[in-house]
Amino acid sequence: MCRKAHPFFSPETIPGSHLNQPIRFLHIPKTAGSTFDECLFILYWLDYLLGRRFTFTGKPVEDARRYHRLTPATRRRLVICTGHAPRRTGLAVIDAMPTVSLLRDPIERVKSFCQHVSEGKSPAIYRRDAAQVFDLDAFLASGRMQLANFQTRMLLGDEAYRQPADTHPALVEKAVAMLEKDLACFGLTEDFDRSLLLFRQVLGWDQLPLYRTRNSRNPQALLNFEPRHLQHIEALNRVDIAVYERARAEYYRRLEQLQPQLDEDLVLLRAALERPGPIFTVIDIARAAKKKLLALRREEGN
């Protein structure tokens, strides 16, 4: 039986009849979301297999069209939603889902995003060439919205990531209120294990949230962030930095409410992570089979 959800879970009722609570993961880029995605796959594997999942791609117009192509019955059966999209998508079923998210120190998040792009992992932004040196100064000055207060934009922005035209203090207060009152729960990338256990307590998962680290940086191609780069990143993220400081304090306040159960669960989780069993082998086989199937379909289409 699913464990009882913790009382500071915000919605009073949760629609659906699944063993786990319905959930939306608000995936802010470069906050260990790929790692958490695999954790969710283990917890919600049946929903994944039965098509009770919707995944955002970060392209609002295309995502909305794909959602509206679903039948009304399929929309009502959705149990899990993941991917890159703002908190408010304009899609009623998804916006009503209990939502969790991970925040990260804004400077570290932007550094990680720059590293990710420099490795050619976002070819629409930058294609890595062995003979080309990634120009970090030019990239930070490019005006890309992922570089500037993007965590706040994900929390407060509309379906096209447009955030309210408010003052700095007003944006901070609105973002903090969103975290504290609208989201079911939020965690910190820097305290990942305990964040997962906090999610477990709040959403009532009966299993330990197992995971592997995914989408790691290439240690052979690390960017060198000079003081001027860090100053530039800080200047671009003053709202996010203020929001993160407030959110971090609230996060640790919530952890204190769950002691000593959380400490006991942490010991169990870390022991389980040392001997995860065959589950990840099964995931890798399934992922390889899916990749092969997609390749065959592309060949048939040519």
Write a concise keyword list for the protein shown above.
alpha/beta, 302 residues, 51% helix, disordered N terminus, Rossmann fold
TL;DR of this structure?
By secondary structure, this protein is of the alpha/beta class.
What is the element layout, followed by pairings?
Elements: E1 23-26, H1 33-43, H2 45-49, E2 53-57, H3 60-68, H4 72-77, E3 80-84, H5 92-95, E4 99-103, H6 106-118, H7 136-140, H8 150-156, H9 168-182, E5 185-188, H10 192-203, H11 227-236, H12 238-257, H13 261-274, H14 279-301
Parallel strand pairs: 1-3, 1-4, 2-3, 4-5
Helix pairs in contact: 9-12, 10-13
Strand order of the main beta sheet, please?
A: 2-3-1-4-5
Level-2 CATH architecture:
3-Layer(aba) Sandwich
Mean pLDDT value? 86
Main sheet characteristics: 5 strands, parallel
Number of domains: 1
User: How many beta strands in the DSSP annotation?
Assistant: 5
Rg, rounded, reads 20 Å
Which regions have little confidence, pLDDT < 50, spanning 5+ residues? 1-19
Compute the separation of the termini in Å.
Answer: 49 Å
